[in-house]
Fold Pirin.
Amino acid sequence: MSNVENDPPEQTVCSAGLSVATEPDTELLHPREVPLGGPRAMRVRRALPNRDRRMVGAWCFADSYGPSDITGQPGMQVPPHPHTGLQTVTWLADGEVRHQDGVGSRRLVRPGELPLMTAGRGIAHSEQSPPDHSSSLYGAQLWVALPERFRQVPPAFEFHSSLPRHELRQGSITVLAGGVDDAISPATTYSPLVGASLTLSAGGQLSVPLEPEFEHAVLALSPGLTAAGVSVPVGAMLYLGRGRRAVELTAAVAGQALLLGGEPFTEDLVMWWNFVGRSHDDIVDARTTWEAEHDSDVGNRRFGPVNGYDGPALSAPALPNARLKARGRYHPHH
């Protein structure tokens, strides 16, 4: 998914080298609404990057959306756009999205299936609700920052139609990335992390095992969710810190959430628009290349053409007047 804001925030250079011991035990991160496209765009709830906290492990971006009634509407329509230095994870609770990318991948994604795109040195992709889409669209889009030694890997796409799952009396745990107990996802990862989809029955309770060396957060996709004794509104994220061996969740109504976690990211990074780099110059180089390539016939493209998409690609927004500067992994009041 693209960050299609015309004026992306400049607070997107993250530093993770600060002592984790100073972090709070829990912290509720409220999302902001962002339009996904033009004037008639669907709106998404962006929990990461947040004003107070910009990463959880290597997870650096988290949008959730729906459930939305898209009967008679185009639904999700995100034109070709570029990425660098990250992996994208799409997770649907309802509906379907067609993925096309610069390495030739074309997939219709449905609930319970995991498309994982590794941008590495650069890739472009589009995301669209198909013309014959169902009436509802509901899900999340996540980004994982790549460590420096893997940041320039060749772009790639993998698709997993089934994932390991713990079926429990009052809910389930589906492992998207990493592992939960003995359930290990087949998805390729480049740093120690975990991602899991959690479902709870109405009035249900769920105890989710955690790796104590990881920091974790719970992203609420539905109302009535409580995690670690804290009510988490739809689209909000509860940061859980480190040192926990489990987190307890309850749901007033049948619902869903995402668990995100990993070893605290120990590298500074710059995230602007759809690019993750290590310096202002990295971003300038990626933006300049994208503007020269998209909608042109140049050969040997860094991002690759998105064949099969009918329409123009997204242009990159203007860079800020000042150089992008490090602002810390989280807000200084921590």
